Amino acid sequence: MSYIEFRNVRKEYIMGETSILALRDASFHVEKGELAVILGSSGAGKTTALNILGGMDRATSGSVIVDGRDIVKLNNRDLVTYRRHDIGFVFQFYNLVPNLTALENVEFATQVSSNALDPKQTLVNVGLGDRLDNFPSQLSGGEQQRVSIARAVAKNPKLLLCDEPTGALDYATGKQVLKLLQDTCRRDGITVLIITHNTALAPMADRLIRFRSGQVIEEKTNPSPADIEDIEW
Ligand SMILES: Nc1ncnc2c1ncn2[C@@H]1O[C@H](COP(=O)(O)OP(=O)(O)OP(=O)(O)O)[C@@H](O)[C@H]1O
Ligand SMILES: [Mg+2]
CA geometry: angle at 154 spanning 153 and 156, to 5°? Predict the structure, then answer.
């Protein structure tokens, strides 16, 4: 059994009289320590799948095995615990708490986690050791995204889930952020999933997962992934 098994997942959103089928029997798997890149056009179901995997949303049917446990079957309380301890999330627009400093943002996240890393050291590791006391508004977009990665990594999660983490960044800054994610995967052995619209990133992945119309239409592994520094787009 793989570390992550997303099996025949359906997700139906009911809105009054109509319903939208965001996922229709989507299946993929990811091995422990892999970096997976998720591609697909707008509306294909990528965010829905990541939110279900992260325990932020629930599947209508199917199973989602993470480290041997089916999270679809968890009750609400256990799902909260799963989200707190096992999942680090990185969003396109950082989602930092504006009135907390960089250090406080990371500390805040680690308070709810059981085996958290040292917040200060984690910020040093993402290159922000000299910006600990800055508020998000005093940091550039790339720096804010590095704080948000530090916040997710400091929880010492099983999975690092990133939804278009470079969507709001320029080329060079986006590349730095991707390098940080690739290093985090390789150095710390954290399983990382990255949603992107940038098909040029495919070579950096250990595994490529492509969505279309709520289904996974392609899944392939890459035995020799490229360093992000060697990819141009
Ligand atoms: N909470 C919701 N309520 C109703 N419909 C939703 C909800 N969330 C997503 N959807 C619908 O489900 C489908 C898949 O959406 P999703 O956000 O997963 O796509 P995506 O692949 O992440 O697209 P994008 O690349 O634009 O972010 C879309 O048709 C979307 O409108
Ligand atoms: Mg999305």
Answer: 70
85: helix, strand or coil: helix
210 lines ligand 1 (CB under 6 A): no
Judge if the beta carbon of residue 42 lies within 6 A of ligand 1: yes
Q: Which atom of ligand 1 is nearest to the CA of 44?
A: 21
Cβ of 157 closer than 6 Å to ligand 1, yes or no, is: no
* CATH no. of 4-230: 3.40.50.300
What is the number of the ligand closest to the CA of 49? 1
Span 44-77, pLDDT tens digits:
999 999 999 999 999 999 999 999 999 999 999 9
At 179-203, the pLDDT tens digits run 999 999 999 999 999 999 999 999 9
Atom 17 of ligand 1, residue of closest alpha carbon: 47
Q: Which amino acid residue places its CA nearest to atom 24 of ligand 1?
A: 42
Every domain of the chain and the residues it spans: 4-230
Identity (one letter) of the amino acid at 214? G
| 175 to 44, 76, 140, 162, 190: CA distances (angstroms) | 25, 37, 15, 14, 19
pTM value is: 0.97
Give CA torsion, residues 129, 190, 212, 57, to 10 deg. -80
